[in-house]
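Self-study notes.
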Amino acid sequence: MAQILYVTNILIEDGALAQLAAECTRAGITRPLIVTDAGVKAAGLLDRALAALPGWPVAVFDQTPGNPNEAAVRAAVLACKAGACDGLIALGGGSSIDCAKGVAIAATHEGPLKTYATIEGGSPKITPAVLPLIAVPTTAGTGSEVARGAIVIVDDGRKLGFHSWHLVPKTAILDPSLTLGLPPLLTAATGMDAIAHCMETFMAPAFNPPADGIALDGLQRGWSHIERATNDGQDREARLNMMSASMQGAMAFQKGLGCVHSLSHSLGGVNPRLHHGTLNALFLPAVIAFNAGAESVQKERRLQRMAHAMGLQDDGDAAASAQRLGEAIRSMNARLGLPAGLAALGVTEDLFDRVIQGALADHCHKTNPRLASAEDYRVMLRASM
């Protein structure tokens, strides 16, 4: 059964942060916990959020790590309970938003977090009792502000997905002015994350025409504005379009993702210091080449349609389009200053077995248009070095 569901109230414009108090009231939140990180606080964005809540009793957890983990979730739950909080405001990138979703579960459900992981059969165990959440992204990449999922490293070291419609934020406040100070490399890496979402969900085989349309438009916006946003952090039009591309990628990926994310999730669990968006950018060419052999990709001319959205020549067969797309992505990565391959990040072939094991178990593995074997993943890893 194909399910198509879009439920988040999305406010997207410069100055949208001014609506934070009104949106808290609309969501029934009277004592919020702001979940953020030290970088966002140092940039002055926490102060801006607090100024939008004058006179409100607000608790703050500002220690979200770069890859959220169960220990951080537990610490934030303690802050939530100490402040008698009845709702959450996630302020930051995907890490803060995903950490807040972990808190929404852990503060209201018993047992270790892995109990509620998708691959553990935990999705049906996540109930409407979760704390209501408002998401205020300060990057343009993950799209977690409109997504039903979160990625958290649990206590046993696995990087697991948690998915439930109950986790979808009540409101997403997309204020491009919050991203103006984002450093170029982080702008590039998060932007390629958004582009990867749009591309991979467009290749996914499930029937969801609205998701396809949203993803293709998001790809066009992201591809045509990412260099501008990276090269000129004050380009408000580029920042707005990158925020939209990020949001659109996540609205669309309810359709499913694929091997790019299976590999990134697994490698990110093996080495949590690696940036998820950067990994997605590096894996895209190899996965697109692998997907060129998928029947659904060939029948519906998926690769040619993506090439057209990116302003590339789109004639020829799927294999030719896969090569053209791969070359364009590698060239874009280079222009953005991203690494040329996994080796530049310190990844070595002795990690491959662990990464492949995790990729085969990942929740995105089965929604790729072509089912990958262990050897297929090994080929993709080598091609991405």
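Second protein, same conventions, sequence then structure:
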Amino acid sequence: MSNVISCDICVIGGGSGGLSVAAGASQMGADVVLVEKGKMGGDCLNYGCVPSKALLGAGHAAQHVREAAKFGIDADLKGIDHKAVHDHVHDIIAGIEPHDSVERFEGLGVKVIQEAARFVGPQEIEVGDQRICAKRFVISTGSRARIPAVDGLDEVDYFTNANLFDMQEKPDHLLVLGGGPIGMEMAQAHRQLGCDVTLLDRSSIMPKDDAELVDIVRRNLVQEGVDIKENISVEKVRKEGDNIILTTDQGEVTGTHLLVAAGRQVNVDGLNLEAANVAYDDKGIRVDARLRTSNKKIFAIGDVAGGFQFTHKAGYDAGIVIRNALFRMPAKADYKALPWVTYTAPELATVGLDEEAARKAHGEIRIMRWPFSENDRARAERKTEGLIKVVTNKKGLILGASIVGPSAGELIQVWVLAISQKMKIGAMASMIAPYPTLSEVSKRAAGSFYTPSLFSEKTKKIVRFLLRFG
């Protein structure tokens, strides 16, 4: 090796979590090296959260035009320029790129090396013709689309989230393999942009969310024209002319383009983790509660550490690592209040325990619901398809909440705070919510906890008794 670099912290992976560690540690006085073999910003900026929400934004805009008549507005959707939609998506990416750029991080004092990293020892990696020795390493290499073992799939052209947003023409009929968040969001976006869409899943769509609320999302996508086929097994893929044909256990399904969104696979290839004594499996690098690997000098965060695979989880992990690596604080990750959102219309957001998990953990529970159809703001904007569902123990401790409806991802945040602070339902019920806002669904649901006792015969007797005294 012609060059040996020594540093305090070496971060491998320039996605959300890695960038947060690098920026934070450098600004706190640590000597930091960041190694990224691909694009700065990682999957989220370039192939995931940002472009998918930009594409959904375009689809939702088209759908608003189609539905304008319900407000008394005569509007026609004259056409959709798919090249212009593509340009819109990449314009959004370009606007965020400077925040994650090499130049910005070098300005923060981080040494950035754009090469692949490979461990050659417990505290040493090779990067090109350089060797880096660090007091602590942080692995934040993320994940990629998992490609299922389907006969013939490797013989046809297909999309994953990594190349979907490069498409500039309209897919006449998009086939989507997978009914998780990516599959559902992209199915709706393309349908709203004028494509025929068929989504197939070997089980039920959105299996990690509350089935009662998932049904509302399913119903809305079907009404918009997405053909959802659940509990169906794809056995073979073949190309015939301009068509892609899926052979399933229920017959053949034909389309023109194919998106594979059948889960995620962690990125550990080429890291040579064995040389660093870092244990891992196909679910990710094994970490303890402090996010340390089997080599206590090496941390793993975000998708590559297994478990929840969300950008905000990686950002949270970064804070845990900084406290451990820089301040020697025994900080532990706690995901009890970690929310997740599927950004379909309506959105579906969840935090904490669902009904089934709450019963297993606490036995007797209470469930509160409130429909968006009884919310005046939702009525005014004709977005009444939705429901909030809150779970508490019998004493009112908030255990979980799920919301399906407009702006669910925004509305869930107050419940994230409540669970993280171990609040009881009374705090939410006594909150003053501005009128008219969608946030009133949270207060209404919380208040319904007290309905059985507040309007009981016992309460009526007490009120009648007290009224006798004038």
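Instructor comment on the second fold: The radius of gyration is 25 Å.
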